[in-house]
Every structure is written in structure tokens, then in C-alpha cells.
Amino acid sequence: MNEYIIGIDIGSSKICAAAGKADRYGRIQIMGITSANCSGVKKGIVVDIDSTSEAIKKCIDSLERMVDTKIKEAYVCIPGGMCELIWNKGVVAVGSEDREIRENDVKRVLKASKIITIPSDKEIVGVIPQQYIIDGYDKIKEPIGMSGLRLEVDAQIILAPSTVVNNLLKSISKAGVKLLGMVFQPLAIAEVALKEEETQRGVAVVDVGEQSIDIYIYEGGNLASIDTISLGGNAITNDISLCLKLPFSEAEKLKIKYGSVGEELSGCDSPIEVNVDYNDKVNVDYFMLKQIIEARVEELLYLIDQKMKCSSFYEKVSGIVLVGGGLALIKGIEELSKSILKKPVRIGAPEYIGAASPLYTAAVGVVKDAIDSIKDKSVMIDTRKENENNDREWTLKQDQKESGNNSGIISKIKEFFTDFF
């Protein structure tokens, strides 16, 4: 696996792209990551294909310079806020004569789970298998290689508006990038920001973007619910701009550089000099700026708290993980969030050198999901080869018994691993 895997996250204000690969030990390395401003997406929905494609192209060009290779293919994440989850079941008979479940059986049962009635304006963009059931035995995560007569799956079907998906695909195609696959955003975030123990115990991921807040609740290892609030980090910037009479772009810079909440010491006692016009500068009082930011951040946190309490899974949430660039980058946000949400709060970010920012969580998650999928397919192919080798080895040993030539199984295993590595 020497080629780079590219993951793209198309957000409301920025497009993030990451390039990664797996080393010889199977560990994932992020080799390049970048972002570009985008004005063609509103609340996760493409409203201007030309503007969005230009931003994608700019982002990919920057990533190409980082990894020194031409990028023609990529994976993209589908925003979770616009999607809907539907539970359904699929059932098939195991096709092989020896009753061993193979990859084709899993594909057939997942296809069977997609047989549902959906609205004309929506389409199926993915399937999340929750558990497999073999001859009545449930809670099976990986059925390939097991034996049985009847294979079932409990799955979540992901529905998305057809228009939204088509416009997203057109933007990517117009940027000159071939789409290899789509990754559901909540799953991409979970790949790099959550621990398996958290998803089993119950955790809420709060993805605060520029124009919307998506709340994903995990319970029992599965994605249990999705909620959206039509307000995001731009509300903070807008308040700074209006209250201090500053251009929106300068207000955004102030928020990113000086944004803090709570009792955290700033170390900024002197007024902040800000460019208002070409040659016009004004001084901004830091404590006034902090009061403006705190007021809006508290409102957003209370909205998140109300939305979470409306969920039937709220009592099962043992912690909250903040991702995205809307709130997670503000200093002191963890302590303030704990005091308002009344639950443990932490910032979720990828644990990779150069990509350890909540802003890049989804893009890095797409890369990891794609690499893991490719690795799983490779393992299945290699396992199949190993089984074939074992069959040939058994025949060879039976033939050699009469001649007294006993080569032994250890040498065969050594040969296999020598070829593999």
C-alpha cells in the first residue's frame, strides 16, 4: 500500500484534505494535511458548485505540494446532519456447499437490508451493519469464515437528499478529482476521536461547525441518534463584528487568536490593535472581546444541552467530545462546557503528528476508514490464499507419507510469511 489515500471534508467555511498511508507495520501515517476557505457551502449543503469546486481544487493543489505527487482520486465524507438513519434487517441463505460464510454472502445480506421503501427525493448512501446473526446466534461482528445455513444482519440504512448528494458529487468531479468512495461523517469522526470503550459505554460527539452543530450519540458501540442545531461558530464572529464595529474577516481573526472563556488568564492587558480599513486602525479592549465571546458561547452550550436532553439516549451519555473548529479551538472551553452540560467534556482530535487539531478530525477519519477497509480486503485475500496453500499442503503431506518424506508444517508456514512480508 504505497499510494496515498486522500480524505476530503467539505465544511461550511473550510474544506480540509488529508493524505495518509500505512507503513510496513500497518500503522497509519498522515503525510500531509491542509485546508482552504470555501464560500459555496451553507450548513453542509452545496449552494454554489463553481465556488466549491474551486475551493476543492485549491485545497488539493496545496496537498499535492506537500506530498509531492499528483492527486487524482479521493474519498469524501458525507455530512451527518443532512442524513437520516433507518433500521432494517436483511436475511439470506448461505450459498456455499460447505456452509462457510464468504465475502459474497455478506455482500448479499447487506444488499438485502437495503430493500426498503424510501421517499422519491432521497437515496441510500450507505449501510452500517450493527450485528450479524448466524442460525439464530446474534452479536456477531465478523461472520466471514464462520459456518451456518442462514445469515441475517441488523443494519442502519443511511438516507440523504438526492439533490444534496448530486451537487456534492458534481463539485468534486468539476475539481478534477475522481471519487473512490464516501464515508459517513459520524463514523469518520469516531475512527480518530473516540475510543471503543467510550462508544460502548455511551458518548456524545458534538461537531460544531461554522453554521451548524451536529450531535451524534453513540451507545453500545453503535451510532444511536443524530441531531442538528442551525447555529454555529459564525454566530460568535458575527457578534464580535457587530458589537465592535469590525469587518467580519477581522472579527474572525480576533476570535481565533484571542478567543477564550472562563477564568483562564489571557496575559493580554494592553488593547488589541485591529485594521478596520486600508489605513484605519482601532484598539479593541480584550476584556470586552472576551465578554462578547463568552455570552454567545454560553448560549450555544445551553442549546446543545437542551437538544441532548430531548434525546431518549441522554441518560446513557457518560461523556461529551467536542470536535470541529466552531468551539473546540476556544481556550477554556472544556471547563465552561463541563459547568453547563454537567458531564465530562474533552476535545477530540486525531493523534497524528501534524494533524492533532479538532478541525481535521473528519478528514483524517476518512483516510483511516479507507485504509482500514483496504487492509481488511487484503487480509481476506491473503487468508483465502493461506487456506488454499493449506489444502495443497495437506495433499502433499498425504502423498509424501508413503515415501517417508516429512517436510512438516513449520517450514510451510515460514515460506508463507516470507512471501507475505
Automatic annotation (TrEMBL):
Residues forming coiled coils: none
Alphabetical GO CC annotations of the entry are: cell division site; cytoplasmic side of plasma membrane
- Which Pfam families does its entry note? FtsA, SHS2_FTSA
> Which part of the chain is the SHS2 domain?
5-193
Lineage top rank: taxon: Bacteria
**Entry's localization field:** Cell membrane
Does the entry feature the keyword Cell cycle, yes or no? yes
- For this entry, list what GO says about its biological process: FtsZ-dependent cytokinesis
Nucleotide-binding found in the keyword field: no
Q: What keywords sit in the KW lines?
A: Cell cycle, Cell division, Cell membrane, Membrane
Q: Topology versus the membrane, per the UniProt entry?
A: Peripheral membrane protein
For this protein, the record's HAMAP family field holds: FtsA (MF_02033)
What does the protein in this record do? Cell division protein that is involved in the assembly of the Z ring. May serve as a membrane anchor for the Z ring.
Subunit and partners: Self-interacts. Interacts with FtsZ.
Q: Which family does it belong to?
A: Belongs to the FtsA/MreB family.
Question: What PANTHER family does the record tag this protein with?
Answer: CELL DIVISION PROTEIN FTSA, CELL DIVISION PROTEIN FTSA-RELATED
Would you tell me the protein name for this molecule? Answer: Cell division protein FtsA
Gene that codes for this? ftsA
